[in-house]
Amino acid sequence: MTDPEKQQKRTPDQFVEDAETGSHTSGTLRQGSAGAYGYDAEAGEMRKLSQKLDNPLKGLSQAELLDSAEKYCVLHGMEEHLEMFKRGALLAAQPHNFDTVKDLTEEERRRLEEETTHKWRQPAMMYYVALISSLAAVVQGMDEAVVNGAQIFYYDILGIAGTDTYHTTLQGLVNSAPYLCCFILACWLTHPLNRFFGRRGTIWISCFIAGAASIWEAFTYSWPQLFAARLLLGLGIGPKSSTAPVYTAECAPAPIRGALVMQWQMWTAFGIALGDIVSVIFVNITPDVAWRLMLGSTVVAPIFVCAMIYFGPESPRWLVSKNRHAKAYESMRRLRFTELQAARDLFYMNALLEAEAEMQRGHNLLAELFTIPRNRRATMASGLVMFMQQFCGVNVIAYYSSQVFVAAGRTRSEAILLTMGTGLVNWIFALPGMLTIDTFGRRNLLLVTFPIMGICLLITGFAFWIPDLNAQTAVVAVGIYLFEVAYSPGEGPVPFTYSAEAFPLYIRDVGMSYATAVTWCFNFVLSISFPTLLTAFKPQGAFGWYAAWCFIGWVVILLVLPETKGLTLEELDLVFSVPTSKHAAYQVKKTGWWIKKYLLFQRPADIPPLYEHDALSGL
């Protein structure tokens, strides 16, 4: 790139974009213009700190790196590993420049090259950690799903069957109890549990609680007892859902970290399918036994996780945060092929934690989610996708589809068998979601799938007007199955992926806690309200309600949700510094241009890009 080209490539601090006229002004922004895009002095300082987290070792000289490595080893009693950490420090600063490290062995060079050429070639222990997290996700999915089949039995047996408001409220309250607990208490226990017991300990405790709650559910004899047991189940769901993906992320090497963390969604979907299969297995047993076996069957998966978790290593990052560096190095060596890779990653991890501590000192992180414009827009966007993950109606199907099929005139056995199909479709079509999310983009996936979901929900609801029972059931099943086909690659994996990307690094943990609380809050709202909604408005109105939210969500996503796929920290700051009103105005104009070009076959004048940046020009 020539010098003039370098001068023309503007950074966020040199960016001015007028969405009204499409004109662009080069040069450094004045304070007023910067403020208009959220770059006040405080936001600018936070941006610099976040950029430092991108690689806290960047810019250090070789001598400084070697000195830092020596101080680190001496301070933490690891002098016997000093030479390895010196080599690791040089590599951590420039991970793709092997020439910075002298005398690489053939094994070390081969393993370093494989991080790019064969990134899925990892030690068996790394896949053992991934297996534990996957089984924890299966626990989660089964805990959510088995109530779908069990409820068509225990409503009658526990005396809460009925279509009046009192009984439908009790039905919703019992079914939604775990998510009420998650929102009010369990999510907020995640941090103290992790602080005192570590990642492995928190996963063990939450799975033990989930298993104990499963047994309690199976031996309840009144709805208040079942409500209390399911409240306890929430204590097993909340911390586990936050901790297991983090445990994987902190153990995994960078090239496969994102892909492994995204497995949580896929294996949760598998757990939902497995829970539906279990319901099919037990449906024809004596009714008072069937629902108890369905709920009690979820004790099996937690037993496996509890038995396996302590054979895996503790998170090296957590051990470093507890100043147990020698133990962290032992843990990292189990997760990497060579000692050099372990030393590199641990030294980098320590530098990153020190930078985070410096960055967070003196800041009210929760308040800054809303007071700094750049953060506030990320908070709004993350809250939007988390809210729509619930109000697109997916958990109406996950929790109540068996009741819907019974309402369509099917027997209990037939209803649960049809419900099993929804779980299997959800899991199978989660697989292409993993492949498309990093190629097609988060925003595009949502814009394509939301209208499809809305149409499928309308088909499902309107099918209840079909007089022929067999035809009605067939159309209801097709509508629900096609909904799952659209949901699984879109609103399934996107919300957690998007939320993990949208926030600056210094505030990401707090931002993710907020986003998780939003989804559990509206999960509870949906779960408690649907039985009453179904009774009051019939299936046509109930499914029409959530179809309307799908179409509303499509419009709001079109107008206010920026794309985050494949963007650097600098580029994300640029994207989230554009005011929401400017973003919405641009998208309206862009939609009009698209309609003229592709639907009316006109040749409208091109619209200048919203973001004046090479990497963003296509957004």
Description of the structure:
The protein is mostly helical and 619 residues long. It has four domains: 1-37 and 578-619, no CATH class; 63-122 and 339-358, no CATH class; 124-336, MFS general substrate transporter like domains (Growth Hormone, Chain: A); 365-569, Up-down Bundle (Growth Hormone, Chain: A). The chain is built from 26 helices and no strands. It has helices at residues 3-8, 31-36, 41-54, 62-75, 82-93, 106-117, 124-157, 165-218, 223-251, 254-282, 287-296, 300-308, 316-321, 325-335, 339-360, 365-371, 373-391, 394-407, 412-428, 430-436, 442-462, 469-487, 494-502, 508-560, 569-575, 580-599. Helix 4 crosses helix 5 and helix 7 crosses helix 8. The longest helix is centred in the first third of the chain and has 54 residues, at 165-218. It is globular and about 80 Å long. The two termini are 23 Å apart. Residues 1-43 and 613-619 have low confidence and may be disordered. Residues 1-12 have a biased composition (Basic and acidic residues). It catalyses: myo-inositol(out) + H(+)(out) = myo-inositol(in) + H(+)(in). It comes from Calocera cornea HHB12733.
